[in-house]
Amino acid sequence: MKIEKETRRVRRPGSVCAGVVWLALLLAAAPVTCGQESAERVALTILATTDVHGNVWPYDYLQGQNAERGLAKVSTYVRQVRARQPNTLLVDCGDTFQGTPLAYLAAEKHAEEPNPVVATMNAMGYDAMAIGNHEWNFGLHTLWRLKEEARFPILGANVVSTYHDRLRDFKPYVIRRVGGVRVALLGLVTSSIPRWDPPEHLVGYEFRDPVEVASKLVPQLRRKADVVVVLIHSGLGRDAETGAPVENVYPEENHVWDLAEQVPGIDVIFFGHSHRELAGKVVNGALLVQPKNWARSVAEVELTLARDNQGWRIVDRQSQLVPMDASIPADPKILELTRAAHQQTERYLSTVVAELGEDLDARSGRIEDHAMVELIHRAQLHATGAQVSLASLFSTRTRWAAGPVTLRDVYSLYFYENKLFTVEITGRQLKDALEYSARSFATYPWPEDATPFSGWGYNFDMAQGVTYKIDLSRPPGERIADLRFEGAALDPARQLTLALNSYRWSGGGGYEMLRHAKIVGRAKKQVREAIIDYLLSRLTVETNVDHNWEIVPQEARRSLLDWVQPTTSTSLHAVPAGIEKSSLTTTAAVP
Length: 591
Known about the structure:
The protein folds into two domains: about 10-345, Metallo-dependent phosphatases (Purple Acid Phosphatase, chain A, domain 2, 4-Layer Sandwich), CATH 3.60.21.10; about 355-565, 5'-Nucleotidase, C-terminal domain (5'-nucleotidase,  domain 2, Alpha-Beta Complex). The strands form eight sheets. An eight-stranded mixed sheet has the order 1-2-18-17-3-6-7-8, with helices on one face. Strands 10-11-13-14-16-15 form a six-stranded mixed sheet. A five-stranded mixed sheet has the order 25-21-29-24-30, sandwiched between helices. It is built from 13 helices and 31 strands. It is an alpha/beta fold and about 600 residues long.
């Protein structure tokens, strides 16, 4: 059957709809009647969010200012759609309950109170969500508590449980009846989760290949339902235009294209994880749609079904992405529902933990030894007593102004919920890790039109406790020179204790040489909390650095510094990077 495809822009009342893709399987002239089982045709709408990451209010907690995103705005749009189309389903594709200070405090500091993200989704009337990889970040007891609070099913067909009870098992699918049409919602998640979370967060669970699981379930669902919809927390894995495979640290992380290509019988796939957008793409008869992360857009699919003696069949599919821009106000009911949690978060973030004597700008933090990175190192070493520390700079857009340093500033520097481990490694493992990190740079002199630094910035690790040079005139794998520990050349067989975050310990970002290194200590706090404790113990931010590493030749270093210099002045406040997840979400499982 030939598929006609037309792209155009549409304006809806009260909102601006961008990236509209109309996908017609069969254009029919007969009128559509909604909500009547006896009608010849029925229309239904499915709305989807993904990678909400705790964004409820239209607010950026790191900058302390309003932002065009959040479930409160989505709620307004959902109300508008339901008002004109009663046959509407609302779904989510995971990575929902972690990612903002509000979500962190709700999960870790105020667990006895109703979770504001879950309460919001309950109030909005979500029909189902697929579990994401970040749902496991706070540990099993928090996950089970969130699951118990939710008045909607959290689906995970490829998450196999040994518990065999309602609270801890994940349903594979649910079937909703809408306007007389049976709609199956099948939930899946990337199978790479064990690479990113510590084993204690995953006890009793096995993560199977989602494509294999779907290949067994979809034929069953085709017999039970009229429409089969997959909600999956996983990236596309291909170039959306050409279908060509894209390079990924973890080939098993992004399954969506393979799912569509290898499992016939799926009508719609809503997906997430990679923090990108796809307004609509048909692969093997399945319509693939991805809304933007942080509830910055909503995916909307409109299906028209006709009934004949064989039952219901889809005769028209339309998909679009609706930006949650200034034209869509926040739902006052959601704001009121979560106001106490929001205000509590703001009070917490405004807490002063230290004083800073001069402005700090992280722009050059991956080019030269930098006070902000040294702060992370010092905190990790102080909390663990390790000999060496590994850490990365998550965003080069972090700015601290001279004066009081607040928890909001610390969040801008370290916004992931990573735990802090001490492991035992060899000098060879450390050098291999630094060599892997140094691959982020191009070889100097830079090839024409080359980007000097590429890759995911949070996967560029720097070390403290050793001295070394990164020689960019050398090819990748041969760049770490003069690596020394306690003044002497580091023996590859030398045993060292290393402080690092839990994501890196799991091999996150492709650091296989560190994966599951022998743990000799676990701090009873996350890395960010270690930084906070370190600052509180000193009350001032040390801005001196020891220049324990440097890029050579000097011409390469100067060229890189010129490359990162600002062209315009910027505010000295945290401006977190719009992180495209890598194979940490990222494509993102996030660290």
